[in-house]
Amino acid sequence: MSSSLEQMYQQVILDHAKSPHGRGFVDLSEGHLHGESHQINPTCGDEVTMRVEFDTADPKVPTISSVSWEGQGCSISQASLSVLTDLVTGAPVAESEHLGDLFRQLMQSRGKGLDEDLEDELGDATAFTGVAQFPARIKCALLGWAALRDTLATSGVLVGSGTAAADQSSTDTPLPAQSPQENR
Prior knowledge:
This protein is α+β, with helices and mostly antiparallel strands and 184 residues long. Helix content is 45%, strand content 14%. It has helices at 3-18, 75-88, 93-107, 116-122, 135-155, 163-171, and strands at residues 34-40, 47-55, 63-72. The chain has a 3-stranded antiparallel sheet with strand order 1-2-3, covered by helices on one side. A hairpin with a 6-residue loop joins strand 1 and strand 2. The protein is globular, with a radius of gyration of 16 Å. Mean pLDDT is 84; it is low at 160-184.
């Protein structure tokens, strides 16, 4: 990777760390499907609590209507959460899962990156390519993505390709979130 590209990537990370998008919990809409997850990176102490609200108006294609989070940690974890928020807000759940898979592949690339088309899908998340060279920092970058995956699983939005969402829309009552942090 060229020095100028590395500098640009470092600047993207610093900008997102200084002014993180999605930081600060937003109130969840009554009657909407949502999930919450608390994740900790035990190797460095970074942590995040993430809330995700889903739009299930089309039960076959639920989307992420909002992502909000509170957390503390290094600039890599905070910037990764910010970039994740930008990437998945408004996206269908299936696309968000795909982006999470791509980001995990990027972190496994050992700094070599992915092919150009896949990196285009990741947008600003490609700024973390260099992080993949440092195994101790990979968990920092993946912290938010682990929280997102957990909210998708515990909310029920992934069950049977939208079955949970279909159940919700047919009864007009929200499904309870399964996360223990929900009742705090």
